[in-house]
Write the structure tokens for this entry.
Amino acid sequence: DAKTTQPPSMDCAEGRAANLPCNHSTISGNEYVYWYRQIHSQGPQYIIHGLKNNETNEMASLIITEDRKSSTLILPHATLRDTAVYYCIVRDSGNTGKLIFGQGTTLQVKP
Amino acid sequence: GAVVSQHPSRVICKSGTSVKIECRSLDFQATTMFWYRQFPKQSLMLMATSNEGSKATYEQGVEKDKFLINHASLTLSTLTVTSAHPEDSSFYICSATPGQNNQPQHFGDGTRLSIL
């Protein structure tokens, strides 16, 4: 089973920041938080990942709470092309490194 | 960035035939690749972990004789759906990771399989 909880859907106005929350209250100390997104009929696209420090790259920022029980993915200036299903995943701590997908958040960016 | 290629992107075939899907890591070596299946309006479901040079590890409920996985090289894994039936129609997606466990997995663009 997925170890994360996300709201099923969110809307965001084009040009505004999109803040996508994720709860992972049972995360263990050596597990990373990964974010992917999936645009219709395509494979998931990697966005960002982190352990405990906040992370930023050209796509997004990841804010992880100090207790690591939740995180927020921030798309600073959402565009229509950011409309997708966003998945927050806690990476399996075993050697396989497999990803278990939950239902994700469907983000709709509106003009 | 890392690129994973899947082929074919779409296949339509008759019930009872076997279908092979290829997953290639184009610019890195992957000792481990993963196969997922996704039904309409659902999330991705992990089917199996493909290990180069050894047998694949299947998730609970996935028939290993139905979904044959071969990982013969560090850049290629294949999934063969044997004696496919309409209920096997789905979106099949592979992923691979370049190296250490905490490096991100990269996904192919998926294969849309339709069994008539």
Q: What stands out?
A: Chain B has a mean pLDDT of 92. The first strand of chain B starts at residue 4 and ends at 7. Chain B touches chain A at residues 4, 6, 32, 34, 36, 43-46, 49, 57, 91, 93, 95, 97, 101-102, 104-110, 112 (CB under 8 Å). Chain B is about 0% helix and 50% strand.
